[in-house]
């Protein structure tokens, strides 16, 4: 069972790394560039700059929330499968 768990963890880690490289890094870069531009206008108040930065972070936060949700659902499905397999083995 340990070998199976290790293979599953390796596969999930590889999937997350691929999502990071293909999607999240671009989103994160845009977030940083946008946030940097918020600081360019010296006439803005501190609150306005914070609001601007928060708006820049919206897409990244959404992407992270989606990834966490999907990984949580994957974990639920895996647990269900494991429990079902354990019941089948006992029969």
Automatic annotation (TrEMBL):
Cited Pfam families: DUF842
GO CC entries: cytoplasm
Annotated signal sequence range: none
Family, similarity comment: Belongs to the FAM136 family.
Name of protein: Zf-Tim10_DDP domain-containing protein
Top-level taxonomy: Eukaryota, Metazoa, Ecdysozoa, Nematoda, Chromadorea
């Amino acid at each position: 069972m340990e070998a199976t768990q290790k293979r599953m963890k390796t596969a999930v880690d590889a999937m997350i790394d691929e999502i990071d490289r293909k999607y999240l890094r671009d989103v994160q870069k845009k977030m940083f560039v946008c946030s940097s531009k918020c600081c360019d206008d010296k006439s803005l108040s501190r609150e306005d700059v914070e609001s601007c930065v928060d708006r820049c972070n919206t897409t990244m936060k959404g992407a992270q929330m989606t990834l966490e949700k999907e990984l949580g659902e994957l974990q639920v499905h895996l647990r269900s499968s494991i429990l079902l397999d354990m019941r089948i083995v006992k029969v």
